[in-house]
Design goal:
The protein is an alpha+beta fold. It is 52% helix and 12% strand. It has 3 helices and 2 strands; from the N terminus they run H-E-H-E-H. It has a two-stranded parallel sheet with strand order 1-2. The chain is flat.
Length: 99
């Protein structure tokens, strides 16, 4: 696979993984509601950043901006994990899914 094709495949995998992890969260059963939720349960959303982490001026920063916007507009509760290296990324996704 050429260099640019492998980058596209990697970003596609990262996007799919982020959506998968985000969809694993369901309405919280811990009670309470956040501002902007209209009294509904708070949605827990998890995001796992790859080794580029926040501040990469790319995918991770874009994902974080979406999380911040969802917190403001939808009242979600977020949790995040920053992967120290590429080897930790898959393990961190599994850990987030267990939460």
């Amino acid at each position: 696979m050429s260099g640019s094709a492998s980058v596209v495949v990697r970003w596609a995998f990262l996007a799919a993984a982020a959506l998968t992890v985000a969809s694993c969260g369901g309405p919280s059963s811990e009670g309470g509601s956040a501002a902007g939720t209209g009294g509904q349960d708070v949605l827990d959303v998890g995001v796992v950043f790859d080794s580029g982490g926040r501040g990469d001026q790319s995918f991770n920063d874009s994902a974080w901006r979406g999380i911040e916007r969802a917190k403001e507009e939808l009242g979600i509760r977020e949790s995040s994990i920053e992967s120290e290296n590429e080897n930790a990324y898959e393990r961190n996704i599994a850990a987030m899914a267990e939460q």
